[in-house]
Amino acid sequence: MDVENDEDLFRCAVCGVQEGDSSNLTTQSSLQTNATVGCGHQFCTACVERELSRRRIFPCPICETEVKRVTLSTRTLDDVQCEKDTSWRRRVMKVYNKAEEDFPSLREYNNYLEEVEDIIFKIVNEEPDAEEMKAKLRTYEEANKSQIVIRQSQRADEERSIADRIAAEQREAGRRKREFFEAERAIAETKRQLKKESTEVMLGEREEVSAELRAAQMQGYRNELKRQQRGGGMGGLLTAGPRVREPEGGLTREKKIDRETYHKRQAAGGGVPTGSIASHERNWVMTASSLFS
Fold first, then answer.
1. Dist. CA 41–CA 33, nearest whole Å
2. Which of 19, 174, 178, 257 could form a disulfide with 261 if both were Cys (CB 3.0 to 4.6 A apart)?
3. What mean pLDDT value characterizes the chain?
4. Cβ neighbours of residue 123 under 8 Å, at least 6 residues apart?
5. Are strands 42-44 and 58-59 parallel, antiparallel or unpaired?
6. Which runs of consecutive H residues, i.e. helices, occur in 125-241?
7. Strand, coil or helix: what is 285?
């Protein structure tokens, strides 16, 4: 497109009026784009109707490209080209649908992708050999129809599998989220109940807080609720974790002693636990007897 100034793209190529220009009070100016590759200039509605009333085709004053009513659009040339590229790319990739594993080397796969891009570019930009590329596309589709259908089916299965995995992950995330909020509500309810029972104990309305709430407070609300959900009783707090099988006779073997050894230990204070009241009384008696002996 040969344009002397970028501002020409936003003015009528015939009269130079801009879109929304209020200089002409008799009509509201709206520009239409000549969506033809190599042009892309805009024309106001008044100039389009005047020129097309005289002839079916008129040349663009800037680039001499033919302007037809069917090529005029209210969208810009970039919008039209983008839509055209998307449409042809989808059509070409539906036919040229080989994957990397279909080629013996990465170089051959890259050459294949480059060939596909060349076909799309030439068709979208209406290159001189665009019709040849369209014919090549049709010929390739007819020659490889069965393989194309097989690969399309495989790709559909892969996309369906991916969609199923995504849906399963979303369901799992939703389940974890619901469990989290349910656990939070249960913890809040447990704290509220503990506070209520503690208040009743202070007021003398009940003797003590329930054992379940005390265990939950000591062990942590969240861990205790998880343990209760697993079905463990109160005894589970003491027996949780792996247990070691005890050997025969217990972990420690007690040596059998005779009666004489037993009496000697008793006389020496072996039968009195250290730190007990009896131990203190024994020590006091021994101290007092040593003072007055």
1. 6
2. 257
3. 76
4. 88, 92, 130, 133, 134
5. unpaired
6. 130-143, 145-202, 211-219, 221-229, 236-239
7. helix
